[in-house]
Design the sequence.
């Protein structure tokens, strides 16, 4: 219960409202958008955005012509997302979706798996996503790499701190992220790159493709103007697209996006 309260407290501060439009979050946003636009059914598709937060992705999905329903457990997120034109936002839990079978052509879980440390809960959320998705549709889920915390603390210069190092080293073994304070992120689960595919399979999703979203570029893209200049941003996105399905690079990417055909 303390962990749930801490996660709720983190999101209640409102940081998720703008996170994907500032700093390194911009690269995560652009690459998620880039991959989804290639794998989603043509608009107007019925899209369920599970754990969609304040609607960062729901906004552009609706603008692209999709019929978007957003489900999130945080009332503040639902309230914010509900103000977006073309987005229907409701409270809900990824593990128990109050949606009919085969109602959507695409179901997205771009955040829920981070916060389900129990493997069976993650499989249940994926199974629910598959249930509400029509045959031939897609389920897409984002995960954070097991190694993201290590690289993040190294880049920020925090790893030598004994407490940070203790937590980070344990995280590499267990995948459980326990933050030192909550200024950067909250309690979460970080996947080994191979792990998500087996969870998809246990949920009955076997036609799976995994994409490395930021590759190693998340370690530098918010510096030196990479995301401030259109030409450099385009070049960066093209480079990441060229290597997005290379398994040997999955571990260095901060986020992975795994897509299955139902």
Sequence:
């Amino acid at each position: 219960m303390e962990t749930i309260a801490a996660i709720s407290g983190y999101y209640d501060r409102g940081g998720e409202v703008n996170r994907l439009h500032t700093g390194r979050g911009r690269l995560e946003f652009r690459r998620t958008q880039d991959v989804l636009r290639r794998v989603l059914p043509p608009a107007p598709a019925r899209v369920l955005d599970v754990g969609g937060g304040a609607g960062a992705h729901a906004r552009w999905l609706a603008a692209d012509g999709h019929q978007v329903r957003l489900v999130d457990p945080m009332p503040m997120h639902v309230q914010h997302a509900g103000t977006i034109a073309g987005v229907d936002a409701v409270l809900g839990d990824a593990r128990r979706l109050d949606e009919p079978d085969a109602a959507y052509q695409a179901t997205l879980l771009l955040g829920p798996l981070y916060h389900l440390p129990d493997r069976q809960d993650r499989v249940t959320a994926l199974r629910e996503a598959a249930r509400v998705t029509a045959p031939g549709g897609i389920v897409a889920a984002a995960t954070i790499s097991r190694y993201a915390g290590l690289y993040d603390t190294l880049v920020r210069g925090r790893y030598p701190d004994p407490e940070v190092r203790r937590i980070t080293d344990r995280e590499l073994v267990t995948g459980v992220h326990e933050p030192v304070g909550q200024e950067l992120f909250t309690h979460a689960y970080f996947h080994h790159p191979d792990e998500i595919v087996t969870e998809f399979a246990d949920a009955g999703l076997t036609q799976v493709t995994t994409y490395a979203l930021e590759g190693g570029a998340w370690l530098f893209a918010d510096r030196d103007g990479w995301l401030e200049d259109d030409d450099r941003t385009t070049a960066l996105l093209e480079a990441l697209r060229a290597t997005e399905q290379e398994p040997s690079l999955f571990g260095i990417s901060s986020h992975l996006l795994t897509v299955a055909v139902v």
The chain has one domain: 2-261. The mean pLDDT is 91. The CA atoms of residues 90 and 200 lie 25 Å apart.
